[in-house]
């Protein structure tokens, strides 16, 4: 009394549930745009819940003494290094972002950046090993004299003063390009690409402080919010709206799931579908520019049975439930048929024959 194992091949639409009794439930695929909007509804609900949970997790983590102590120490190092600014409005913010936000003239930005780099070099002399401090000073000199920083007329941004032997701004180049170009091209590059790197690798304990902060962000804030969001949006509703294992979006558009028996999917299949969709597709998509989600969406749009990747793997199919219910077993069908005094009918899926 079981239907075929394949939804599309050799399917006998007549399922006998008793002597001379047949059932006729004609399922059909939902409209494609209904499926898209249903998924968008679920996604928007997930975004809202994730944001609320993330803010809650961040508040809890931020209130712990260890996190506060770590952040205080980290911010102290950042400000003392000269590569960050402690602003009353924005808090501790990196130097380039700060200078791009404040209403300073181009010359003041350039001069401010130069003074902060001098502070950074002095900080390295104090905190780093002698070898690291020498290497950082040399990298700054090499960067200023590099052929990468030459204007369109072949003038270097910096030159060596013949009298003092110091590296100074090439005033000919300065007159050609102006202070803003100096700031945008050289100072922004050196601060963000070079100095920030030395801050991590050469300043004692800085790497450990930032690593702790990153770990807390990923494992204590993002991961719990992501996990609970998935369970609340994509798994819990399938137990509330059991017929067809519907989420909120699927409920709104009368979209349910059938397994290969053309019955309600078991809890094992429902759990497997959730795990494949939420953890395989979503997480892999974060690291692969959305490729798994694109593939699954393409399968849903163009494959023969309009199945996304999880449904294809588990032999599930989405159907329109506006006119017909989805049943847990054949006895349920027989009971409803007797209760409603229906005529013997034919059980088939129109779009999957």
Summarize this entry quickly:
This protein has 353 residues and is mostly helical. It has twelve helices and ten strands. Strands 1-2 form a two-stranded antiparallel sheet.
Would you mind describing this structure in some detail?
Helix content is 60%, strand content 9%. A hairpin with a 2-residue loop joins strand 1 (16-18) and strand 2. It has 12 helices and 10 strands. The longest helix has 35 residues, at 206-240. The relative contact order is 0.16. The protein has helices at 32-62, 65-81, 95-101, 106-127, 130-144, 171-202, 206-240, 248-252, 267-287, 291-302, 309-314, 330-339; strands spanning 16-18, 21-22, 26-27, 84-87, 91-94, 158-160, 167-169, 255-258, 317-320, 348-349. A two-stranded antiparallel sheet has the order 1-2. With 353 residues, the protein is mainly α.
The span between the termini is: 19 Å
User: The biggest beta sheet, please?
Assistant: 2 strands, antiparallel
Let me know the number of strands: 10
| Helix share bin | 55-70%
Please tell me what the overall shape is: elongated
- Report the β-strand fraction as a percent range: 5-15%
Search tags:
12 helices; 9% strand; mainly alpha; two-stranded antiparallel ribbon; two-stranded parallel ribbon; 353 residues
């Amino acid at each position: 009394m079981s239907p075929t194992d394949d939804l599309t091949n050799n399917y006998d639409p007549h399922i006998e549930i008793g002597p001379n009794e047949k059932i006729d439930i004609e399922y059909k695929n939902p409209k494609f745009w209904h499926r898209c909007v249903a998924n968008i509804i679920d996604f928007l609900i997930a975004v809202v819940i994730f944001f609320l949970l993330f803010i809650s997790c961040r508040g809890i983590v931020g209130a712990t003494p260890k996190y506060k102590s770590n952040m205080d120490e980290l911010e102290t190092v950042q400000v003392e290094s000269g590569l960050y600014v402690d602003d009353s409005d924005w808090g501790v913010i990196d130097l380039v972002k700060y200078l791009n936000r404040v209403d300073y003239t181009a010359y003041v930005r350039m001069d401010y950046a130069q003074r902060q780099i001098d502070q950074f070099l002095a900080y390295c002399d104090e905190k780093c090993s002698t070898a690291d401090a020498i290497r950082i000073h040399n990298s700054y000199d090499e960067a200023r004299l590099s052929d990468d920083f030459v204007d369109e007329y072949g003038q270097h941004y910096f030159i060596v003063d013949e009298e003092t032997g110091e590296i100074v701004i090439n005033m000919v180049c300065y007159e050609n390009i102006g202070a803003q170009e100096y700031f945008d091209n050289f100072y922004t590059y050196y601060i963000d690409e070079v100095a920030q790197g030395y801050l991590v690798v050469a300043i004692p304990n800085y790497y450990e402080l930032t690593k702790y902060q990153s770990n807390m962000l990923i494992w204590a804030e993002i991961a719990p919010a992501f996990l609970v969001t998935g369970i609340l949006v994509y798994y819990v509703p399938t137990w509330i709206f059991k017929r067809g294992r519907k989420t909120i979006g699927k409920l709104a558009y009368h979209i349910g799931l059938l397994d290969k028996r053309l019955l309600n999917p078991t809890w094992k299949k429902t759990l497997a579908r959730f795990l494949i969709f939420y953890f395989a597709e979503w997480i892999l998509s974060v690291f692969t520019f959305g490729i798994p989600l694109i593939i699954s969406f393409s399968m849903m749009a163009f494959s023969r049975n309009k199945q996304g990747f999880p449904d294809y793997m588990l032999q599930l199919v989405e159907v329109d439930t506006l006119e017909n219910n989805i049943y847990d077993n054949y006895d349920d069908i027989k009971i409803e048929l007797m209760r409603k005094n229906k005529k013997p009918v034919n059980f088939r899926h129109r779009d999957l024959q």
